[in-house]
Amino acid sequence: MPKITQLLFDCDNTLVLSEELAFVACAALSNELLEAKGISQRYTGPQLMSEFVGQNFRGVVVSLQKKYGFDLEPKELDDLVGQELGRVVATLKEKAEPCEGVMPVLDKLYAEKKYGLAVVSSSALSRVQASVDKVGQAKYFPPDHIFSAATSLPVPTTKPDPAIYLHACKVIGKEPGECVAVEDSKSGALSGIRAGIPVLGYVGSYEGEIKQKEMNALLKELGVKVIMEDWADFEKCLAEIEAL
Q1: Alpha-carbon torsion 19, 23, 24, 25, what sign?
Q2: What is residue 50's predicted lDDT score, i.e. its pLDDT?
Q3: One short Pfam family name for this protein (predicted)?
Q4: Based on C-alpha coordinates, what's the Rg of the chain?
């Protein structure tokens, strides 16, 4: 295995506790869409998060179209994505918090400069930037090392498509095997795996021991070999990946 020189962090619920906040806004707009299409199903934020965690809003709407059998014109989809982004960014700027225990880890990594640091997210760039700005993480990740599947690519996509990880590697100048992706969701882990990047699974943001165990098992089924429950274990978990 090549020497690891680059760390690629998912943002939502990996660096920043943003998923629940975002999915409340996302659910409200999704319900408005479903009502307009004459579909009786409604979602709470947690329900939508449970079903679509790891996807950006464009991916959620595409999934809803497939599930409930309705179509949107490209402009309609673009307009919805824009509306959702505005609502979510405003919420994150007010309420976002860092994931528990992540700040000391980032401080140490940044000071040691042993690894390059970057963010690779499904979420729109303005949402990711709002998140890292609000919680004081912007100093670790320069703007040219924050990558968004919704914004950074010629054609917007979402994880589990590996395109954003492959793009990040190309821009940074690293081979996938030189990187480790830190991911908390099925779609995120699959994105990294499909890009050929070793994945460190993080389950610490899931509420309750049962949910954490379920995610631990799911990530391992996908091929994630090392799972981290607490950011305090990051060095040990990274060493395990480097020893593979």
Answers
A1: positive
A2: 87
A3: Hydrolase
A4: 17
